Amino acid sequence: MSLSALLGRSPDERKYTAYEEGATLAPGTAILVRIRHSGGTAERHRSVGVCLTASGADGDQSTWIRCRAHVRRFLRAEVPDGPHATTLLEGTAHTVDVLVEVTSGERVLLRPAPAAPRRDARRGGKLSAPELPDGCTVRLVPLDPDAYGRSRRWVARLEIGSDLPRGWHTATVRVVSAARVRGGGDGFCETSRNVRFRIAGPIVVAEHALGYGLVRLDSERAVRTRTLRLLQVDRGVDLARVTASVEPEGADWIRAAQVTLVEAPDGRSAELRIELPIPRPTDDGAFRGRVRIDSGVEDEPSLFVPLSGVLR
Amino acid sequence: MLVPALTAALALVAAGVPTGQPEDQAARRALVPVSPLVHDFGEAFVGDVLEHGFELRVGDRPIELTDTTNT
């Protein structure tokens, strides 16, 4: 930024003229430096300064002028249930609420902002999944609105359709003020929040595989224990009825593994402890198989988790 | 970097019209602040654009002014 590029603006009373770089200023000349401070795009304390250097017969002298501001978002969006990802049952509709608050306490009208395609930074900014997956919609509900429907607090309700496939999904809930509320920029304030959720079957196994790693035959420990965590997604499923066994693929000795189910007190989760007795001194080499989990659920009676290790 | 967030405009009283006598010691400085050199806008919101004018005057000798913020 150079002074020659800066344009002065006449204040109301006194006639200021723009300074042209290289011009000499007489002693006593009044100077007005106008700083325009943009709040930026993030919440933080901001401090910006301009250094003016006066060059004269006695050399250079520098003077700093500085502006400070504590910048806040006008709209703030939070997921009241916490930032943790939610696991939702496949084939049923769900809602996730995002609370939108006006930090100044003003009442405003909001509307859903159009969903944009999401750009994937890992793919060089190429377009990836849309901000709102197919089957998802956002509905805005004002809390304690005034006669004009304006409110300080809004619920942006993400409605998740029943047709979403299994797996992880991210929906961006984006809202914008329906009228100009601030002088900066175009005055339309926008905020957004990502909601990440998983569509799953009646029971979810947290681990994708069970690895025993390198197991020494001369180890003093005769049993190696690993744990699988089960999560109840369908409230109608009774985890206490779950049974499990180990099915070998080649190394038949792993069939002797003992499987114990330990249910959490709230009934929403359980641990499967798989105790693998180490044979000695037989069958060294790689072993593999799978843990078969019989859920007792008609839609998905069995789940399988691969198991592997190396015996030396 | 904070600097892109601001623009500064320098304007002068009509050329050759001195507004004060450089009698005090402060006038020995090349630039004498008339208003405080630090301004606190207080609370602002993302997207707000705030403006503030700083007043100074030239001391007891002729000068040229340069913005050396980024140099």
Name its key features.
heterodimer, A: 312 residues, mainly beta, Immunoglobulin-like, 3 domains, 4-stranded mixed sheet, 22 strands, 0% helix, elongated, disordered N terminus, B: 71 residues, two-stranded antiparallel sheet
Record the strand order, biggest sheet of chain B.
Answer: 2-4
Helical residue percent of chain B?
under 10%
Q: Mean pLDDT across all residues of chain B, rounded?
A: 70
Radius of gyration of chain B: 15 Å
User: How does the overall form of chain A come out from the CA principal axes?
Assistant: elongated
List the helices and strands and how they pair.
The complex is a heterodimer of chains A (312) and B (71).
Chain A: E1 16-18, E2 30-38, E3 44-56, E4 59-72, E5 75-78, E6 86-89, E7 94-102, E8 110-112, E9 117-120, E10 126-130, E11 136-143, E12 153-160, E13 167-177, E14 190-200, E15 203-205, E16 210-215, E17 223-232, E18 243-248, E19 258-263, E20 269-277, E21 285-294, E22 302-311
Parallel strand pairs in A: 6-14, 16-22
Antiparallel strand pairs in A: 3-4, 5-7, 7-12, 8-13, 9-10, 11-12, 13-14, 15-17, 17-20, 18-21, 19-20, 21-22
Chain B: E1 6-13, E2 31-33, E3 38-45, E4 49-58, E5 64-67
Antiparallel strand pairs in B: 2-4
Describe the structure.
- The complex is a heterodimer of chains A (312) and B (71).
- With 312 residues, chain A is an all-beta fold.
- Chain A folds into 3 domains: 3-71, no CATH class; 75-200, Sandwich (Immunoglobulin-like); 203-311, Immunoglobulin-like, CATH 2.60.40.
- Chain A is built from no helices and 22 strands.
- In chain A, the strands form 6 sheets. A 4-stranded antiparallel β-sheet of chain A has the order 5-7-12-11, with no helix packed on it. Chain A has a 4-stranded mixed β-sheet with strand order 6-14-13-8, with no helix packed on it.
- The model of chain A is unreliable at 1-13 (pLDDT under 50).
- By secondary structure, chain B is mainly beta.
- Chain B has a domain at 23-63.
- Helices cover 0% and strands 46% of the residues of chain B.
- Chain B is built from no helices and 5 strands.
- A two-stranded antiparallel ribbon of chain B has the order 2-4.
- The radius of gyration of chain B is 15 Å and the shape is elongated.
- Chain B starts with 5 loop residues before the first strand and ends with a strand.
- In chain B, 32% of the residues are buried.
- Classes of the chains: A mainly beta (312), B mainly beta (71).
- The interface between A and B is large, with 73 and 60 residues.
- Strand 4 of chain A pairs parallel with strand 3 (38-45) of chain B, so a sheet runs across the interface.
